[in-house]
């Protein structure tokens, strides 16, 4: 039975089982929801600041939006009184630039513990939590595989928490899936991304602006290469992991499975946007990327968006949404 879109509403259980996606109106969350709907699932999407659905979800049956502060344990548990939740994808996150690491770790830890407690209370079949490619910081060999030994020390608060979250989740909930998500870009993502320059290059080209990559913005050089995953592929991979009948592992890399050169992306941008003449200065380094053999073997996932198709799709979306 399809469950119609609503925001909040009276406390009454949903008839059909549903998958809860925290941070469900963000870029990865909303595309995960779209992929789950395409696979025949119904979804509950939580949001902290807005309950407005993106247009690619707005006319869909089987979508419920619930306002939620994930640090509120009682409110989290109450979701199970209104909906028959059979799985959880925990993507909600504290702002990456929270300046005090204690504040950041407290917010992230509280939200995760609340999600784990709720999942245990509801007896969910599967619990997926967003980890990150940053978990491999300090690992020399690429492509990075899930069984690579990880350094015990991390230089930034994000990989510190992500590594910890993987341990907590695997301990607390049967059916855990730790999602080591790669370098994701696409609709609803940050156009001025603080971690890599490609979204800035593309959005500036669509707007006819100089990309202005002066520090503290990250650089873009002709020798640079990175892990790169279009958000629609990322969402579909997560959805496939959630619905798979059986998974052999608790940790999965989620990305395209290849190293993408910045020059490939710049060439695609120049081809997709008339008049665009982006060039990259010399220098740079190749970086690393995620191996997705596990993901492909256990779910059948194959990326649908190569660089050219991803750029064309992102450009079209930006033009339709007042880039």
From TrEMBL:
Species for this entry: Pseudonocardia xishanensis
Record protein name field: NAD(P)-dependent oxidoreductase
Residue stretches making up the Ketoreductase domain: 17-164
Source organism, top-level taxon: Bacteria
């Amino acid at each position: 039975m399809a469950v119609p879109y609503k925001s909040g509403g009276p406390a009454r259980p949903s008839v059909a089982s549903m998958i809860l996606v925290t941070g469900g109106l963000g870029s990865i969350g909303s595309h995960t929801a779209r992929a789950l709907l395409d696979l025949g699932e119904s979804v509950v999407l939580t949001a902290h600041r807005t309950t407005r659905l993106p247009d690619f979800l707005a006319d869909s049956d089987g979508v419920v939006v619930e306002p939620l502060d994930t640090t509120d344990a009682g409110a989290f548990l109450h979701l199970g009184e209104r909906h028959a939740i059979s799985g959880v994808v925990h993507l909600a996150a504290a702002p990456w630039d929270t300046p005090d690491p204690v504040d950041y770790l407290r917010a992230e830890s509280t939200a995760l513990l609340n999600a784990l407690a709720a999942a245990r209370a509801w007896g969910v079949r599967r619990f997926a939590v967003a980890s990150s490619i940053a978990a491999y910081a300090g690992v020399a060999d690429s492509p990075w595989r899930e069984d690579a030994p990880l350094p015990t020390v991390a230089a930034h608060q994000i990989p510190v928490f992500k590594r910890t979250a993987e341990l907590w989740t695997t301990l607390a909930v049967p059916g855990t899936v730790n999602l080591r998500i790669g370098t994701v870009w696409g609709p609803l993502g940050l156009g001025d991304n603080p971690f890599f320059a490609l979204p800035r290059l593309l959005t500036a080209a669509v707007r006819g602006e100089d990309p202005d990559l002066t520090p503290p913005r990250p650089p873009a050089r002709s020798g640079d290469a990175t892990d790169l995953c279009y958000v629609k592929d990322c969402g579909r991979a997560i959805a496939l992991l959630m619905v798979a009948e059986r998974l052999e592992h608790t940790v999965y890399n989620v990305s395209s499975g290849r190293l993408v050169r910045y020059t490939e992306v710049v060439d695609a941008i120049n081809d997709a946007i008339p008049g665009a003449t982006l060039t990259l200065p010399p220098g740079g380094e190749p970086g690393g990327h995620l191996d997705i053999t596990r993901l492909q073997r256990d779910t059948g996932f194959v990326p649908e968006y190569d660089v050219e198709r991803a750029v064309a799709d992102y450009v079209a979306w930006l033009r339709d949404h007042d880039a």
